[in-house]
Amino acid sequence: MGYQTDTNVPWSKINDFLLDCGRINNPRDFSIRVLQKLDSLIPYDQGHVYFLDYKGKVVDEFLVGTDPQFIRDYHEYYSKIEGGRYSVSKGVKKQDSSICEIEKLVYDWTAQEDDEFISRHLRPYGIRHTFGLGLYDIGKSVQSAFILNRVSRVKYTIAEMRIIANIRPHLNNLFKNFFYNSPGSEVNTGGTIPGLTARESEIALLLCKGFAPVLIGKQLCISLETVYKHIAHIHAKMKVSTQQELLVKLYSGHLPLPS
Questions:
Q1: Where residue 161 sits, what CATH number does that domain have?
Q2: In which band, very low, low, confident or very high, does the pLDDT at 185 lie, cut at 50, 70 and 90?
Q3: Which terminus of the chain is more exposed, N or C, with fewer CB under 10 A?
Q4: What global pTM score does this model have?
């Protein structure tokens, strides 16, 4: 990996990166593309993107260069120790894109006092430095969390933090576009949608938040087949044939959504 040493911001690379990511039309694939392309701006050895539900629980993930056992151990044990101190949702909460705030998302594990997480989980895999980044929906909830690990002794630099400070607001704006149809329009999530059952309303609102059917099934603990059956019923009752038509109808204001 070629690590940053120049303090200049590579505007041409940033522009190409944002244009490439901006071509994606759904939040999951967008997040995967961001992770895959970030290496051209901020090199890493191991990359993870976690997809979170509205409660901050990881429901899916995409990994680059990472040992699956490392991730299993993390989910089953290390993300839960010390009151969830090392959980994904706690690691990417900062939203400010200033250099000062970006620095708080960079972890130099070699400079921190040893604890169980560092000595038994990170060190055996050679992880020395970590950078975390979150993308948010219109309700300011983290929906995609990125973790970039380095096994190299080379730290994340001020130059790289300056890159993040410049691309982060653009990424968040692109990401938020998946969660609303027009500025200022939001679907109220406080009750059921007229004409739909409670379960159908729940699924419709998750679709509006950008959740793919497979993630909805994981969150609600139902099969993918059941999710698709509910979606078919929703489309029939709402007299739409696509998810985009559903979003337009729910966000248009024509429905007396519950207050």
A1: 3.30.450.40
A2: very low
A3: C
A4: 0.70
Q: In terms of domains, do 38 and 137 share one?
A: yes
User: Which helix (H) or strand (E) is 143 found in, with range?
Assistant: strand 142-150
Q: What Å distances lie between residue 52 and 45, 58, 114, 229, CA to CA?
A: 23, 4, 28, 23
Whether residue 6 lies inside any domain: the answer is: no
| Phi, psi for 128 (deg, rounded to 5) | -110, -35
DSSP annotation string for 218-245: HHHT--HHHHHHHHHHHHHHHT-SSHHH
Contacts 24+ apart (CB under 8 A), 200-203: 200/230, 200/233, 200/234, 200/237, 203/227, 203/230, 203/231, 203/234
CA distance 158 to 93: 20
pLDDT digits (tens, 9 = 90+) for 204-232: 888 876 677 888 888 788 998 999 999 99
- Is residue 132 included in any domain, yes or no? yes
Structure tokens at 228: 């698709």
H or E segment and range at residue 38: helix 27-38
Q: What is the DSSP letter of 169?
A: H
Question: Domain containing 255: what range?
Answer: 182-259
- Domain end among 114, 147, 179: 179
